[in-house]
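If you are new to this repository, start here. Below is one unmodified record pulled from the training split, so you can see the exact layout before writing a loader.
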Amino acid sequence: MKTRAFNRMVIFNPILKSSSYHFKTDWFAQMRKGSAGGKTNHASGILAGAGHFLIGLWLVLLLLSMAAGEALSETSRDMAECAKIENDAERLKCYDRLTGRKSQDMTPVKESAERAAEAKGEKASYFSRLWELDEETLRGKYAIKLHRSTYVLPFTYNASPNVDAVREADPDKDLKHAEFNFQLSLKVKLWQDILGQKMDLWLGYTQRSFWQFYNFEDSSPFRETNYEPELLLNFRTNYHILGLKGRFINVGLNHQSNGQSDPLSRSWNRAVANFGFERGPFSFLLKGWYRIPESAEDDDNPKIEKYLGYGEVWAYYFLKNHRLGLMLRNNLDFHKNRGALQLEWSFPLFEQVGGYLQYYSGYGESLLDYNHSVNRIGIGLILVDWN
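And here is the target side for that same chain:
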């Protein structure tokens, strides 16, 4: 019944135009720093674009295989799951499997326990599985799992591309309205039950890319890629407020940058605090942050707080195998009010891959667009981690 957790974390940094990349802070390792390159001809650009696509597709397939290979609980937890089964025959078969005795029904212990829980209407919640909040969802250290949404949008349409920003580096640059977007987001638990308490230490990594795939005249370049590692201390909670159940609080450090050279370089560092609440099929995430100050000469996205504010709200509603999502962000400045809205709908296609429709309107879709308002809609696929 035991399964091995992953013994190492794979850091994805696949599709980059830059030759080197760095973080500007002491608490993150150096990453790539962009460098300008010469124009390539049309044919070589298409080949490069195809190579980027294959790399991105390989990463998505790799994530899918990891999602499909979820590890089972350790033996002690399996014993607890067996004890939850009310049916005597099923419970005996469960214990038989733990002791190595053969049984006609070889259904895994976890599945038997889940069937019993579902019969009682006690299916593990979205946040419980996402952050391993309950005993039956704990997986131990070093198991890689999904963090934020991981998706691929082969076609998006942006009604207001930020041409002015890219023309700071190349006055002749032009942008297409259509783009190929994708996001990869993983996390790994570094320390479970810190000091014997309900606290876990997580390392997360999110990468979001905006690819001018349909800009064949300019060799299909990557317009923008944002890299976002974060270290989070998660407190597993169980309290009630305003009819909602408080499931977790996590605090930590977050770095986000785009790896480009001036004048397109963007980065900032934050202290973050996130609060997760649930009620039935409804999940609610309140995110807050404080920007760690930096000197004026090092600040390559001045007054970013005036556009992105100090937090955002995420709400999800689950209806059968569908997920409806809403993100709201606002700077709370009534004189120069700026904000953002994201609407999304995930619908079932396959067991762990769903269809995905996303709409975004407002500031801060990417770091390069932090002070530019975007209106974009896209459709594609998403890895499902809520069924």
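Two things worth knowing about this chain: Confidence is low (pLDDT under 50) at residues 1-46, 63-73, 105-119. The radius of gyration is 23 Å.
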